[in-house]
Inverse folding.
């Protein structure tokens, strides 16, 4: 007999987490806010870009070069609750979550590496 609860849980485990992350410089307190519909291994991807000197945010890249990897921490700040519908579009939910997190760090110029409110990373 098919265990529907088990199948549902397996399906939910296959969906990558979606939400907002904070990449924090522990030396300065500045943060890089980001969001994604796929947070899986986002920290590894960011660190790879920084380590190879290819991050698109120049201020973050400069601080990474000056302080080193050990000065930075990554956290999934908030994730969206997953829906049972496999065709559910999370974009609007993520936009609302992005706005809430951007508001927590206003004014952006003083607290963030982000230069504008567009924080979505693919």
């Amino acid at each position: 007999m098919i265990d529907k609860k088990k199948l549902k849980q397996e399906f939910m485990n296959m969906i990558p987490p979606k939400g907002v992350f904070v990449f924090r410089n522990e030396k300065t307190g500045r943060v890089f806010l980001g969001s994604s519909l796929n947070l899986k291994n986002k920290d590894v991807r960011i660190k790879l870009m920084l380590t190879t000197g290819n991050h698109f945010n120049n201020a973050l890249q400069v601080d990474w070069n000056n302080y080193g990897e050990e000065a930075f921490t990554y956290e999934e700040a908030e994730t969206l609750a997953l829906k049972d519908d496999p065709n559910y579009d999370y974009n609007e939910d993520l936009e609302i979550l992005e706005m809430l997190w951007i508001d927590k760090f206003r004014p952006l110029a003083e607290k963030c590496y982000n230069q504008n409110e567009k924080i979505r990373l693919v």
